[in-house]
Amino acid sequence: MNITIIGVGLIGGSVALGLKGFQTHIIGVDANPKHVQTALKLGIIDEANDLDTAVSKSDLIIMAIPVDAARKLLPYILNHMPANCTLTDMGSTKSGICQVAAEHPRRGAYVAAHPMAGTENSGPEAAIHGLFTHKKTVICERELSHSDSLDVVLKMYEILQMNILYMSPEDHDRHIAYVSHISHISSFTLGLTVLEIEKDEERIFDMASTGFASTVRLAKSSPDMWAPIFKQNAPQLSTALDAYIKNLQLFKELIEEGNIDEIRKLMTQANDIRRILDGIRQ
Amino acid sequence: MNITIIGVGLIGGSVALGLKGFQTHIIGVDANPKHVQTALKLGIIDEANDLDTAVSKSDLIIMAIPVDAARKLLPYILNHMPANCTLTDMGSTKSGICQVAAEHPRRGAYVAAHPMAGTENSGPEAAIHGLFTHKKTVICERELSHSDSLDVVLKMYEILQMNILYMSPEDHDRHIAYVSHISHISSFTLGLTVLEIEKDEERIFDMASTGFASTVRLAKSSPDMWAPIFKQNAPQLSTALDAYIKNLQLFKELIEEGNIDEIRKLMTQANDIRRILDGIRQ
Question: Could you say which of B68, B224, B258 has the minimum Cβ distance to residue A234?
Fold first, then answer.
């Protein structure tokens, strides 16, 4: 089976590594020529090629590129790929791309997906074998995909050992705003805030410890990948950030008032997050 | 050497484990009788005793209790401990306790310290051998401690293999607000915000992944330990939270405007946090 992966970075590269040895021939395509060369050299892909050539001989095409680029590219690929070829994506927002796909006569050949795994690193060097193992993929609008195309994508996620959740693009985007996107914004903003202070307080990072490292880890993530995600999920993120900022302001007021009982009460409520975290596979 | 550890939880218990085998006899004192019994049973301490008895026969007394309790207890211990005994604490705020100590005739027998290590867990079962290894301790107002007392505490941190930073209580509290306290508030508040949404969106946590786990890990921390820290460091935290909330609001506005170039620019600035994180020992 010829599989084209467009974007051979952290996600695309890790998919390629996971599909190796399953009678696949992986063709890598990337706007950055260095990335395909690195991916080829590292043995992540079997062939490097240009988009048109790769698309013309594929059975499965996977877009693992920023969500704005994926939305733009989708109609072009659906127009040019062979009959019986399946297209899927791995983007962290689903409403935008599903809207574009809905208007295309070959909608059935596309499967909207979001494998939920990653690290704060990027590029082909960041690709990891087993990145997706036992984690979850969301598939949206399964009813709009042909059963053959859905089967191809489900088979791929079976090889990657992922569990499948089905939901609407709107539910996906609303939920992911809370459990992924504001985590990233929280980290980015915390990193930014402390780096600003560093200008006046040079030795501030002498005191940074593992707790700090954990909270700001996601601030290392790729701006090219995340900025378009935030833009596409703006309405959901606006609501989620309002709730987050409101709670931060409440916390700040309670601290300023010295209302220790209420602070302790809120923190005890937050401790319930342990129940959630115990269920997440690290 | 008789060492009394008041509070045999995560921090006090880990100190006890680190000092084992260095000609020490560790006496555990805890307001919670279950904690001392557990610490004794786990072999963390050599003896469980009441505060007065323990204090009366100690060469070194370590307070590893919430910062409000430590500030209250300090004068009592300085009044009752033997001549040549040294008192130290491990609290995450230093201005408050240093103010109380400054008024005491035996100020010289006290060493104000903050070993910067921890996990999100609490209680004696959470104690870890090696928790402090190669991490940093801040010592404040060294010039107000007798050299004998300072030597005892430095020797202890040498055994625990910690590196020492010296600074004023005010510098400590200002810096720690940024590199530790707002990380905790950010996590607690994020946890709280997502748990609130869960009431309407039951399946939201099906989608939580490792990025989320990393960002909210600190929300599992002990409210009894952290609420008093936030109260004592209120002025510094108020400033730090203002800066953090302001940056969050800026981020939110840029997302609402769809100003992707400016979002990307801010995120690229935040990426510089990699330089800091690479220097933190995990």
Answer: B258
